[in-house]
Amino acid sequence: MSSSARVLWKIAVLVSVGFAHSTLYEGSCSSARSGEDWSGETSLPVGGEQFGSERDETPRFNLGTGPESRRAFVREATLHAWRGYAEKAWGTDELQPLSGRGKNNFGGVGATIVDSISTLYIMGFKDEFNEAKSWVESELNFDGVGEVIVFETVIRILGGLLSAYHLSGEEVFLHKAEDLGRRLQKSFATKTGFPFPRCDLNSTSCGFHRDYGRHVLLAEIGSIQLEFRALSFHSNDQSAAALREHAERVIEMLKEMGPKENKGLIPYLLDINSGRFSNGYITLGSPSDSYFEYLLKTWIQGGRQEDMFRDMFLEVMDGIFAFMRVYVGDGITILQELAGNSQPRKKMDHFTCYLPGVVTLGLELASLEERKTWMSFAENVTSTCFGMYRWSPCGLAAEHIEVDEDDFLYFSGGYMLRPEVTEALFYMWRSTHEPKYREWGWEIFESIERWCRTDLAFTVLVETNSEDPAQGDSMPSFFIAETLKYLYLLFSDDDRLSLNNWVFNTEGHPLLITPGLIKTE
Ligand SMILES: *[C@@H]1O[C@H](CO)[C@@H](O)[C@H](O)[C@H]1NC(C)=O
Ligand SMILES: *[C@@H]1O[C@H](CO)[C@@H](O)[C@H](O)[C@H]1NC(C)=O
Description:
By secondary structure, this protein is an alpha+beta fold. The protein has a single domain, classed as Alpha/alpha barrel (Glycosyltransferase), CATH 1.50.10.10. The chain has 16 helices and 17 strands. It has helices at residues 11-16, 67-89, 111-123, 126-138, 150-168, 171-184, 218-222, 225-234, 238-257, 289-301, 307-324, 355-361, 368-390, 420-432, 435-452, 478-490, and strands spanning 6-10, 94-96, 101-103, 147-149, 198-200, 206-207, 215-217, 269-271, 281-282, 325-329, 332-335, 338-339, 347-349, 400-403, 408-412, 502-504, 510-512. The strands form seven sheets. A four-stranded antiparallel β-sheet has the order 1-15-14-13. A three-stranded antiparallel β-sheet has the order 4-5-6. The chain has a two-stranded antiparallel ribbon with strand order 2-3. The N and C termini lie far apart (53 Å). Bound molecules: 2-acetamido-2-deoxy-beta-D-glucopyranose (2 copies). The site of one 2-acetamido-2-deoxy-beta-D-glucopyranose has 5 residues, from loops.
């Protein structure tokens, strides 16, 4: 337990303060996608999703509380964040909203611009979309970019460019993605084929994380598949085909090497030379999280035909139900972490809240009896994740939640404008249409407006256990890419980015489901 953690409330008290936990799922699953025949499905063409068509008007509170009004507020917040960045930090990676400066924490690739394009398109910000496109066309030049983190570059930049291409059909995004792909190919030049964590985009050199020696993290090798596969589908480049094979080979290796005693759950640290696991620590949160997510999403992306990904995902679900669920109070589900040979920790990251979305997305794979359990599990985790917001004095969640032997609940860390809970609410809404998920999303949005909005943009909080929390000086690029996008989609109709056509990468970028991706021998 970190020293900064503080006891807030005893669980029993906490639950009685009016946090209405969800009731067991009893719906008929009519909205779930089970029973549909996927085989004959034709997918949307590139550029086939229409540009957003909202009217540009300043929202006013007398617009009412319907979804249109709420979308207008989310749009206004997005524009505010975008304009602050554009005014003070244009071309840098991220805005520091308090000091009004930009910073290059991703190598100087204009991360906020590239990461925002899909959101601008979906929300219908034509001028801003065109500004971003012109910047990509004329300013985004990887020749001047030195060392980057491969994983972050793949999910934010490559994913952002490919999503922009899939949505708009504009070739410039594809060409930049191809250029970036070529520069990342060298990352796979290791004994195992696990990619190096860091590479220079403008030279041939790659290297390791400063903290982990010759070891790599599960999420960073296991959640790059959607992006490289999407690239290979559209590109005739030899390197794109090779990238796809490298990325898929990583998953095959994990299947071969992974310890089996915890079913599909595998530890987060691997040796880049031997391919062996370097520790026994299992978590669904960071730094493993999106690996579990990509097993399912990779299967969906390819039109649900590649059994390896599906089977590995189902093993993960078995593992979660067998080892990870811990109840610490009525209506609260904490997912524990398995710390090798020592005691499990009842600790859950904000990161882990991506999980309900993945479970509802995978519902079509559950048997009839399993379906109720999966849905109830997704609801319970979502309630707990939303609880991390509602139980906090400022209405915004800390980075971690942990429960000790005496059932005291601890929170630690600030609020980083993270997306996982708005993402969970989006998926829960899509699969149940229970109004509470929209209400919860709105409550979170109001707290963000209240505590994170600055004159310039939005900023993180360094603490959450306060009725007047102190602000930090950072607006991560995922705030526009994910947090605001998922809120907007939560208040949109289901055919806006239909889950029949789109699969979201772990940075919130929608990529087309592409059954033709599968090679036919
Ligand atoms: C690569 O980019 C870095 C800046 O990020 C620069 O310092 C370095 O000189 C560049 N190298 C080449 C070969 O262009
Ligand atoms: C969800 O929570 C309820 C209430 O605590 C519990 O009865 C139920 O078993 C939980 N469901 C799952 C699948 O964990």
